[in-house]
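DATA SHEET
Item: assembly model
Revision: 1
Owner: S.N.
Input lines:
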Amino acid sequence: MIRIPPYLQPEDAIGIVCPAGYMPLEKAQTAIDILKGWGYKIKIGRTLGSNSANYFSGTDEERLNDFQQMLDDDEVKAVFCARGGYGIGRIIEQIDFKKFKQNPKWVAGFSDVTVLHSHIYSNYKIATLHAPMASAFDDGGYKNEFVQSLKNVLEGKKIKYACAVSELNRKGEAIGELVGGNLSLLAHLIGTSSDLKIKGKILFLEDVGEYLYNIDRMFYQLKRGGKLDKLAGLIIGGFTEMKDTERPFGKTAYEIIHDLVKEYDYPVCFGFPVSHGKENCALKVGAAYKLKVGKNKIILEE
Amino acid sequence: MNRKKFLSSILASSAAIPAFAAKNIFEQDELSKPILVPRYLISGDIIGITCPAGFITDKEIQPAVQQMQNWGFSIKIGETVNKKDFTFGGTDDERAKDFQQMLDDDSVKAIMCARGGYGSVRIIDKLNFTKFAKHPKWIIGFSDITVIHSHLNKNFNIASVHSKMCNSFPDDWSKAEQTQIDSIFSIKQALIGEKMKYEAMPNASNKAGTAEGQLIGGNLKTIESLAGSKSDIRTAGKILFVEDTGEYLYSIDRMFWNLKRTDKLSHLKGLIIGSFKAKPDDPGEEFGKTLYDIVLEKIKEYDYPVCFDFPVGHQKNNFALKCGVKHKLNVQAESCTLIETR
């Protein structure tokens, strides 16, 4: 049975860290201000606005220690990753989840943070939060329904998501635990101790900046690894900024996915608002949801 | 890039070695099944050319056809040559059918994949290897063809040749670099059963030592994408070689983490790193680690030998390597050699 960490109360502390790529503090300032405005205290980790000179926000050890400290700090009720990039896979096996397991708290983010979602769900059955990160708050972004969905989820409100239909959808209803994240990361984790367990689940996927042939190859990997045949449902989010080879692949990302799951009978929807773009709502990874793919609309609700 | 030197191979005692002659049981291979080495080729044997992945024209394969004929082989051109389905050499069904015909045609003694690209994984589960497993033949290629090498090694214990393909044979040999010519001629040497010997330039990052084991490997991204599937590469007790091209350093780092976290680095006999022409970091996203750093940090707790800048990869010096066949790797401060031992 999945465990849901306690929802946040006013004055609870949110810790903000960069377990992967570097981010200057000022780039997270809007998010910090807005989170404070929502009534939370903010603890800024040493890896946000660090003095790192390279790609990462700090050495593996620094990123590990900062994340570990937030995970173990009783005062911190949620750990937000300020940005993704690349780097969590380098430290995941060294993170000690002992205390976290006894006192679960929210771990939030997406993209590279998929490593944490998958690892925590598969090993500890604790829900995490696939949600917009710091940059989504900028330029008035905090007012949009997607960042607002993060606020609502943190407060424990149950959210009903709806989105427009695509002609590629397969109609139907599914109930199950919702799991997923970034396709490239989930493919990369196959065979490791962070491998996502998806049998009987509603799987959601998104990706950005990949070659179309590579989307195809990753779906073949999921398929050949037995990860697509026993789903309850499939939610396809944004596959944005796709790249193509000189000789065109001849299909869009959605067409690739559609073709590879057509032999199954679970509901499938395309264009769900989970992505590297603005449309990225907060989803509780591991929580039970109901997916309804209808003729006129798609609904996902707890 | 260091220039590598290819040592002339040592001629085997017999050009034609019957299948099953090279049976060997390798320690630490979970299956402990002997590797099946297909019969080596003799003059007049037929090499089939097919496209399991990307599209190629009849004209583009002509230099390869002519050269392999010069070597004394006959050529059978598959139906997928000149076929085109967007990026693929025909639809999945067409590519699978052509490959299947080559596998099952008794007169075809070796199958050269015309080029890589992408697509082998889309047909691998459609192929029936029953007849092939009883009567193995050489399958030749690299890059996307890593899918086939890994699949054959894991499921059927059949040796195959990792080498350049039709699209690497030059139109004009007089303009080709010697290393490219040597690489192409090494395909013939491998196919006729010469005992292979390779040399890489000494490299300060190498880890010295000697190792003996089955050689296995290929394109790193392709290997990663096979994890969890029934073509997943089995590396325990083997000498692993990997190469890749056009990937960001962070992505290469992530791929080596995948190898490590899927337990593919812990029981190696030795590690061979071919060329990795990494894509330059985007401005402001400097990764800060070299390929050498990336590899060495993943294997620091192991003591097997490691050889960098080995002449295998998406480059002119890309010598034919016999996957599944036993080799001896000897890495020293002054030299690095890989010798087929059988």
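QC remark: Residues 178-191 of chain B form the longest helix (14 residues).
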